[in-house]
Amino acid sequence: MDESPVTEAVATDSTAGAFEPKIVAFLCNWCSYAGADLAGISRIQYPPSIRVIRVPCSGRVDPFFILKALQNGADGVLVSGCHPGDCHYLTGNYVARRRFAVLNDLLEFAGIDPGRVSFSWVSAAEGERFAEVVRDVTEKVRQLGPNKKLLKEEVA
Amino acid sequence: MSREEQLRKRAKELLAKKEVVMVICYRAGKRPGTATPAFVTRPDGADSLVFDDRCGMNLAAYLPRVKHLGRIAVVAKGCDSRSLVTLLKEKQVTRDQLLILGVGCEGVKEKGKLSDACATCAYPNPVICDEMIGEKVTEPPPAPDPLADFEKLTPDERWQVLADDVSRCIRCYACRQVCPNCYCPTCFVDTNSPQWVGKTTAESDNMMFHLMRAMHMAGRCVECGSCSRGCPMGIDLMRFNRKVAKIVKERFGATAGLVPDEPPALAAFDPGDKQEFIQ
Amino acid sequence: MKAFILSAEELGRLVTEWAKSGAVYAPVKVKDWSEFRRISSLAEADLTRVNTKLSARSLLFPQCETMFRFETSHPDKAQLAAEPVPQVILGVRPCDAAGIAVLDKFFAGQGETDTFYRRRRDKTILVGLACQVPDDTCFCTAVGGSPAGTRGLDLLLTDIGGHYVAEPLTERGEAAVKDMNEAAAADLAKKDELASKATAAMAERIDTRKLKELLDTADTNPVWGELSLPCVNCGACTFVCPTCHCFDITDETRKDKGARIRVWDTCQSCMYSQHASGHNPRLAPAARFRNRTMDKFRYTVDQVGEVSCVGCGRCIRECPAGIDIRETVERLMLALGEQSADAMQTADCKMQKAK
Amino acid sequence: MSDSGKVGAVLVVGGGIGGVQTALDLGDSGYKVYLVERASAIGGVMAMLDKTFPTNDCSMCILSPKLVAAGRHENIELMTQTEVLGVSGEPGNLKVRLKRYARSVDLAKCTGCGDCLTKCPVRDLPNEFEGGLSKRRAIYRMYAQAVPNAPTIDRTQCLKFTRDKCGACQKSCKAGAIDYTQQDEEIEVEVGSIVVAAGSKIAPTGLRPEYGHGRYPNVVTSLEYERILSASGPYSGHVKRPSDGKEPKRIAWLQCVGSRDDSVERGYCSAMCCMYAVKEAVITKEHAKHVEPAVFYMDMRSYGKDFDKYVERAEQQYGVRLVRARVAEVREDPETKNLVLRFAGDGGQRSQEFDMVVLSCGFVPPPELIELSKRLDFELDKYGFAATDQWGPIATTRDGVSVAGSFAQPMAIPEAVTGASGAAAAAEEVLAAERGKLAAVKEVPAETDVRGEAPRIGVFVCHCGINIGGVVRVPEVTEYARSLPHVVFAEENLYSCSGDTQEKIKDRIREHRLNRVVVASCSPRTHEPLFQATVTEAGLNPHLFAMTNIRDQCSWVHMKEPDKATEKSKDLVKMAVARALRLKPLPKVKLPVTKAGLVVGGGVAGMTSALALAGEGFDVFLVEQEKTLGGNARTIATTVEGDDVKARLEELVGKVTSHPRIKVYSGARIKAIDGFVGNFQTTLQREERGERREESLKHGAVVVATGAQYRTPTEYGYGQSDRVLSQKELEEILSGSRQSPVAIRQSQSIVMIQCVGSRDEERPYCSRICCAEAVKNGLKVKEVNPDADIYVLYRDIRTYGLREEYYRQARQKGVVFIRYSPEQKPEVRIEDGKPLVSVFDPILGQPVELSPDLLVLSSGLVPQAGSDELAKMLKVPLNADGFFLEAHMKLRPVDFATEGVFMAGLCHFPKFIDEAAAQAKAAAGRAATILSRDTLEAEATVASVNPDRCSACHMCEGLCAYRAIEVKTINERTGKQAAVVNEALCKGCGACAANCRSLAIDIRGFQAENISREIAALLD
Description:
The structure holds 4 protein chains of 4 kinds. By secondary structure, chain C is an alpha+beta fold. In chain C, 34% of the residues lie in helices and 21% in strands. Chain C has 2 domains: 4-61 and 82-200, no CATH class; 208-248 and 271-343, no CATH class. Chain C is built from 12 helices and 12 strands. In chain C, strand 11 and strand 12 (257-264) form a beta hairpin. Chain D contains 24 helices and 52 strands. Chain D is globular. The interface between A and D is large, with 76 and 89 residues.
């Protein structure tokens, strides 16, 4: 693979002024974090919206992490792990998937807008896909605007 | 012999023969139309026992507190028996600690009205018991989905309805205390480092509490309705728990509290679980 | 003081007037109960129900209250929470008002006072409403109260059918109604008649003095184990009680801002008595159950000279296990009186279950 | 060299998955390893694959951790761009001459930042790794995740070397790593043993010129197609055809290109092409739903574990069309560049048009290995694969040189990995006395106790040359870091990972009494261990370190948004500081190891494992439930290759029973197995002089080799006539240990039915060995009675690998093979005690009636009785068919997920003796990685339980794939129960913690508290 050239950075932040959401991304160390690394190595550009928190496995992601992020003011949350069957810990993502399924449906039920919390599987080889997921999630959250539900605006 | 007489006779027998150290059932409350859990340890105490449509409290909630005394006989209607199954699954009691006296249930009345939970009950008869007291009741036809109307609302409307409802929450945790599923030594609301749930009654904190409580009920809640009936503020807590039960049933084909040997739905997985929500 | 007579319209005008200079709270219908809510006109209020879900205590001692704010980088520069606005609480039942009188003793009585309670209390006018048809959970008369009791109130209203007899009890109360017509003797007679009828409807009697004596030596009595068995220590009783007043203090910080907050606490929670060392003197559920009963009928007598149960009946109404404090007292009296020897083996206070 | 005169080091030739596994096993077992690879990075063919069958694992995802582990292993010295020149000396003490070609990049200085890669003006060279489908430059990195991560210069193309100008890469390199003056050099290493894991190459398409590869752009090889499918490949995982970049609709796979083809002297079956073709078709469908894949094949050889199910899914769920036909020719339509296939199908010659054709190329030994075999002095077979012994397909003809992986014969990844671990075991047997002698010993200073100290955080922000600094305003980020609470020191570095900066970081830690260190630079996946080592050298616990990635996640992906990239970098630093605040020193948990192994099962696999373990120097307890050793092999006379099984078995039993380190317990049953890796305790029960006795054994590892059972047929008249036999019974007759109802010499006709009770609904798996057994016995019968008519009724003949040769021989000798379909199974009637067989012959297009003297049923293998009880005792899983389930189908073929437990032989799945023996050695090699240690160091980042909070609900137990958490009574007096983590088994994945309602479980290193603070810090 030819690594695309490092073009000299030009100080023209494309979306300056527009709502730039803050999205907390929980990435599993072995696949999705590696996928994010590959996106970097391949210089694939995506919006500067996400802030990554590295976890050993998507199975480590407690629903509290997700809700806490929304409560503290994240506009969106992304959780990403290995594709089914690829889990470094054999079955961590299967276990997580059930939990995420319940959380996903429960949040939708509670009226948290679909798209506020996203889940994805991104492998270590999917740099472009990782970027695509980030673009997609960012766009969805941008459409929704700043998160108000579950947000704890300030101290009592 | 009426069911009540059978019940008293059997309780008396069990205590007299020392087959059990205690019978957990109900007795009439001081207020007309109410009943309160009764814990009988002597044969003559059995004379006050009742079982009828006043007897709502889920008796499974008491087992973790008294199981150390010895073998306990517990009167179980459908939902209590399912809660016992959950406790068995989670090894909070062992089968030999229990003598389950099953009773068919036609629904619990609150202020003369059938309790919300009972209106949609699919398991009025015990799913597990050692002996039946009286006859089983006829299984009701499947009830319409009680969440259907709510789920038709827009996300904003749904949020608003729930936010209004939980805004009354005074964080007394009665819902937790009456729930047979809640037996953690320290509840997540009481932990710090990290303190996941703020102690205030702000909308965000209250919602966080109820959403997380619902998460903890997934695959475990048997929809007995104790939480809603127990809430001093009249919050429709069952709505959350019904939802997770529905999710678990639709997604994983699992219904809580039916098969003691099956792991709880969230302690298991199937490689073929649906994942349409994952990109 | 003189009594006055108010038509519903006049009361309505008073409410509108009060609402201009402060907040007016009154029972408002919610689902099939009522709750104190802020109103702007009398039409919003529902004065027909006996007791609100929560007692009026929540308006003087809110479930969650910010005490002061600070910046995390300058913790020394704390800012006391803003002064409360003046408020009128309309439709307070005499039992609740008596409860506030008890709270006053703890928070605004002799010696140390509680700033946050006192600030609110000083700006509050309590307008009571005498009871006429008690609920089956009501027992104010058994603990020294009355359906037409005036304790704690600034003004007591009695609905005599289309009109209210208004009895001012304090200067603030009198100021509110002094321009109204004076009540006629017939009105007063009607009022008295309604009061005695309501009193007669409540048969419950508790010999609080005797109870106190019995409780004084009942700490380790096995009866607590038996009585507490149905109790799941949910604490709903303490949250709805007009006189319970325990709170927990917590700091909340976000960004650079922090606030010290207090929230209601309950002796029924096992965390309540947890020591920093890990020791917990009231880990056993029975011990927590005992504490609440003792508190109502023994400890507060020692502390402020009176029982802190006002007979509002909320704990009976809201107990998920159907525990009835009247029955608890009855059985206590019986058991402690008899000092029943054959106490149940299960009545062991050491029963372990922490939650 | 030591007293024994041997050297505790091993040379491993070949850096593919086989070589890497051998190197890791040896390194973990305390040997010094030289891993020699001709290319500029290790990884081999597996690095080029997109997904792997039958689990569809992402190949890079599962391989990369192994490559990284090999790259940083203290006992492994990577020698890339290196080849072997020659060897001298004796086994145990060999001198190997190597030639290292100049990389022109100093590995010690290169940070792998990649700055140079974009500056090279020579940009149009075909990228070999991508099958020429994309371009590379004269300085290039083999692939993105390459280990080592440094580029290399192609001196034949580089302008500096060809025309002595340019030098752009050197100018761009801030680390000064480009060195044009490097010279090729010859070096010599001393080793005790050599393992050749040189792999294989795909067959050159020139073998089948009629398929048009090289002429027609839309005809690609299977390996090229892997790159097309790969998300990191030339088309970013979009299925496109090379001629016009359009998405093809119809794709054909042509099987057996360069395999099963005597005309090109490739008579063997390449063993894995059927599966990879079906996999490629499946993955294609996943990428592009509308594609219609078709696989043209001769026999569908899905003989492995769960393979048949995979193929069925491909057909049923994915709509992959399987066409049984050999394609004669491919022609291109010059207009559309579409391809027309000509083949013989139902109803004669047919042709069909496709948009793209994938050639399922077989595998051939790398031609350069002829030279290598000469240099290392071992023999090759007629195809050029290494000649090995049937019973230990590991030893070459030269002592001290072993072979691992597909250089022995064509094999798929699991077999290669198995062979690799086996080769490690073989090397260890030679060098048992030298274990640990040359292993690296690292001196680390005593750890500073920071408990109770207020956090003093030091932040180091990296420019990474211009990789970060070119976009992110590093000085601003550093200044910001300085302003954060508890940060007492912050500075920027040109390259944080360079040697001098490492020293600087250590100095700063001491000067400023730092007790937490944050580095903001690149990926912790590659660099965290380096920085952790650095802080350790400065006396800090390695877990007082936090890293954040402002390059891969910031400067490289927001190159045009410097302001936002800078803001994001600040956020990331703030988050890392927040996490660092509460980092705790994590203790290393050391657990003692009982240096003995338990082998369960005394068949060939069990005995081979026991011998290998004993040879490695460990005590072995060999437990067999029967009174005699030998297992299933006792019923086999010879192998299809002609090996005398009886004699070999006797020899094996003799070695086992006489070995001083092996204690054999025959007629014994395992009653209980307690404990965990390093510390097992097994209770045995056996009858001795009519008395039932119990015995307790202590051991550190377990090898399960309980075998399988021949299935007794129930169909086709078995039991109704003595002339209906099982294949096993025929074998006994042929070896003279059973009386035949009709003398073989007199038999006029014998019919064999394959897949009896296999590949059906009840047992949906292939028993793998039956085809070769039928061929073997068919040939035997022909030997005794050349006139006998032999008919083999089959579904697919699966004589994979080199066994294909015997299938050909059988056909040549007149054995008739008639295919039947599962819808039209043969029918058998018994008349007058004789079987009558009727079967539909698809070639004749009509039913054939046969009245054989003997009807032989190949009824396959079924799991050993009692497997489920053993599985429960060991807490290991069985698959749906009842065979033991390995930890990972591809890369951990003999391991269980439960640490310290391994498997070998038929209990894993049906297989041939040589495969069982290879697995047995592999299991011994894997077990040695544990038994060779005095103590096991548990991972520090494991789960921990707060017992006061635990509600003992048992949820965690079911969630743990490693069976590392268990609810136990922790206080006998109060009866208090709580979950207890077995730190030796826990991997720290966190599945238990995230599901713990009681918040009793936390993961060290990934504490909820720290993550919560990280979240809060970001959003504050």
